[in-house]
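Colleagues,

Please find the record for the two-part complex below.
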Amino acid sequence: MTTTNMTMAKALNEGLRRAMEKNKKVLIMGEDVGKLGGVFRITDGLQKDFGEDRVIDAPLAESAIVGTAVGLAIRGYRTVCEIQFDGFVYPAFDQIVSQVAKLHKRSDGVYTMGLVIRIPFQGGIGAIEHHSESPEAYFAQTAGLRVVSCSNPSDAYWMIQQSIEHDDPIIFCEAKSRYWEKGEVDLDNPPQGLFDAAVRREGTDVTVIGYGSSVKTMLRAADTAVAEGTSLEIIDARSLAPLDLDTMARSLEKTGRLVVVQEAPHMASIGSEIVAELSERCFYSLRAPGLRVSGYHVPYPPSRIEEDYRPSVERILDAVDRVMGAES
Amino acid sequence: MIGEELVQLLTPEGERIANSEYESTLGIDEIFGLYRDMVIIRRLCNESTSLQRQGQLALWAPVQGQEAAQIGAGRALQPMDFTFPTYREHGIAWCRGVPPKDMLRLFRATSNGGWDPQKYRHSVPTVVLGNQALNAVGYAMGIQRDGAEEAVMAFFGDGASSQGDVLESFVWASSFNTPVVFFCQNNQWGISTPMSIQSKIPLYHRAHGFGFPGIRVDGNDVLAVYEVTKRALDSARVGGGPTLIEAYTYRLGAHTTSDDPTRYRIDAEVEVWKHRDPIERVKSLLVREYHVKSAKFDEVITEADAMALQLREDVLAMDRPDPITMFDHAYAAPHPLVEEGRREMIELGVSAASPS
């Protein structure tokens, strides 16, 4: 087993490199992905090594980045589209929902929409407006798409490769606030399947489920909770559509209490879906209603006050107290 | 706006006119073939309108008046080329070999596609205006990477010319010099929206602003459409880059069978365009120049009638699909929610024979 310590950004870069080496039909297309290596340097050095035909610096038009990737998919190419920031994906929404999600069906299975749309998402980097959003639920709601999210270097390295190899279109959400955090990556064996949730920390009292940037916050909450005598089981959902409900339900059958964490507002969110599904599956094991710790139902705030918007350790622990207290 | 900018090889009366840049390369058999194609498409269209009126189709998008634009473009294509249509490209589908009954599956509401797009190298219909222009350019980028001598045609109308996707596709095609021909059928009306509020300049002028050639052809002149399209495709296949062709034509019928054009346009305008009928002018040429006998034209009518009869039979035999098929091909790989839905439907005992 070869493990290497690297940042999540580097892991994505290495994963993309390996996918391009394995399959000559894999292309990268996005704004500033060539010489600059992307605004987050995820594609650093790839154009130099694979050429301008495979790492394509796109004109600045998101609908076209995705719309041309659709045509390339029909021709047998697998394009990894880079959307520069979450808040810039909306011009491509029409192509994603009307064509990417539906063409496999509309062609009776003849077209394979094997393409990946990478979106750096969530906040926490002190950015200006439109650079910190959580649009994942828009895509999760659309039949024909799959949505996954990586929260650490190992997942980043493997999930990007698994997404590229997958025959369905994948919305690949990268927790941008975790790009520069390091972790061990096993370069030989993937940790698990693309659509599997991961138990990051075992516990007995409350199941806490989240994804992306929230996972690290949840782990910190678990550390604090232990000191207060409460044991949290931390689950990284990883796949947001479909959800790995079996793994989640197994945990909830054990703990009987559920808290879901996300940066998106809770209205019609991934968290709402998790609570609804698990309430149905685990109703007789539940000892308290499942709670959601979410962003507030307001436009993402100026980043000087974003830490009062994003789920914090304190807000997670408050929800933990509520599900624990509901019993007494 | 029609004037000397318009490439025309036949007058509305079917007389040849000289053009400094284009001349017809087609002989009698090929011209008669174009005539036959146009008659068949018009017959297909009339039959489909009747089928809709009789409650057998959910909708129909007529193509009357635009037969020359579609047949001229469709016959200029080579087998290895690839085409991205809207929902009105029945003439193109015909030229690509799509069986008429498959064209009607969408309108019978038994399918959202209707044919194997790779088999006919003719993509499934795009209903959202302009999306397909970007898909076409992407396909053309694939051709470039494969080093193949092939071209793509993107079809859209004057209405879609205002869509961002069409304009973005112009940028992409120009910047990457892709082998794509944009074929805009300007039929003057986007449902009730007239050309005058879509563009203040002739549509084909837009291409120059994007850095590639634009050309306006008389869309009711099948010989001119054929030559203009052929040259654009020949150029695209060998690295000449994109061309925008504006086929200047007219939608003689309604936008769809749900539309009522008497609410927004005057009869006099329609009458003017009826005199520019694309089929009559070729027939005049065939009679005057090639002395084609009326019996030969009658044969085509008979053939078209037989096609229409067969089409009617095929459509009436096109049953409601088994509802369980809605779960097929929603995803390429197994998906738990799709399987959950499929199981539920099986448990409910839903079948093709039991409309709910």
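The mean pLDDT of chain A is 97.

Comments are welcome before we finalize the supplementary table.
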